[in-house]
Fold each of these.
Amino acid sequence: NEEYTGRNRGLLMVYEEAHSYLPRSERSSYIYGYARKAVEKIYKEGRKFGIGAMVVTQRPSEISETILAQVGTFIALRLTNSSDKNNVQSSAPNNMNSLIELLPSLRIGEAIVVGEAINIPSRVRINLVEPRPSSNDPKLVAGWERKYEIKGKHYSNIVKAWREEKHIKKGE
């Protein structure tokens, strides 16, 4: 009967925006190289000490291959880049390519889950947090679609500002 040498309570380490400091490249700056090596060690040996790890990234193709090789489950939201999609596809069973092909068309809150944590790779809906955090992307297209009415007196001010390359204050 072996004595348990790990933690009494598991610890999950979350690496948010991991592509910024856990790069695939060996030639990255020293500080990122140290971070990558430390996290690689946690991924390889952490389980025996009750330590789990979660990598959160928008660019799985930019993450260290050693780290990705240790990932047991992928929860992939919308991915449009083919190299990122290929990273998720490589962890899915061969007959699940049609599911992976959905990645670019997923809606907000939808994900493809593949790996040890789920019996069958699946498309899932993730409940949105209420109240929503104030971290929404700007709605650029909605702003561009707004109809503006330019009155005669404002039109000349706009043309003058363009020619002089200056900003127009609201109400001018």
Note: The longest strand covers residues 110-115.
Amino acid sequence: MIISPSPPPPKSPARLSQPKQAAADIPVFVTAPAIDTVVNSTDSAANHGTNFLTWLKGGVISHRIIINDAKARVHTVDGTAFLVSPDIFKRYALEHPEIEREAKERDLEAWQIVQRAFEKLKKHRKTPAGLNIWTCLVKGPRKSKQLRGYLLTEPTDVFSEVPYDNPVISLADLADKEPSE
């Protein structure tokens, strides 16, 4: 009797993970949409301002965007939100790189497109001189500096509950005037 060698069993691939499970055993997770979901996935120019405010409010609520801190780009001044410009718009543009393509077509920086769209919403106060940008004075223990940005007309556009004003920041126009006796 001649015994022919049987072929060796097929090599099983090295396992680097758990064994496969039946489909019924695999848990399925459904996630809710993020707070800062954009209004339109194409993010057309008309929606940049609205999407920015949605992102900003969601970021403040979730604490991804800090407020009233030395490095913060959102502060509470004069009972409302003060948005440091252009820094807050630059951060939004960095987190939304799809705006860059439109910016190149229009020969602008991405943050400028967002800032202009925000201005068109008319959600900010104008200075007594009719300007969009306010100047705030920051008085720290060692030095003072200035911040420039937008004051919102409605603090609830950014805050769910309006925090106290940042004690080290004041509007430059109001800080320069002496209180009348």
Note: Residues 12-43, 175-181 have pLDDT under 50 and may be disordered.
